[in-house]
Amino acid sequence: MLQANPTLYLDELQEQLFAARDKDVSLATLSRVIRRLAVTHKRVSKTAAERNELLRATWQAEYGDIPAEYFVWLDESSVDDKTNQRNHGWAQLGHACVRRATFIWGQRYSVLPALTTDGFIALDIFEGSVNKDRFLRFLNEELVCSQ
User: How many domains does the chain have?
Assistant: First the structure.
């Protein structure tokens, strides 16, 4: 249960155990068992649920020999003011506590940068999310026209 949702509080874990196994376990017992399993409470680091390690490795194998100065990197980043995810969770000793999550919450502010090894060559910051039209406009008006 903790691997599926490492940010559970002990009382939530207690409730889920009762619902799944019909076993009523005290909080003290849960705490002792977690400690014996070498699971500790620590700060959560987040990874994007959209991330695909296989695609990343395939791309690196295909294009890894091209010099970095030949590339222009484009990426959409965004932030919002309603992040309410828990900051602490459970994980084995020696392992980071990671929870995969979709990073979409409330009103968003987006950034479209174009980067080279020399730095930014184009940048657009705006309220809202990036869609196809916004991205193509950025490419045409900010990136292509700035060269």
Answer: 1
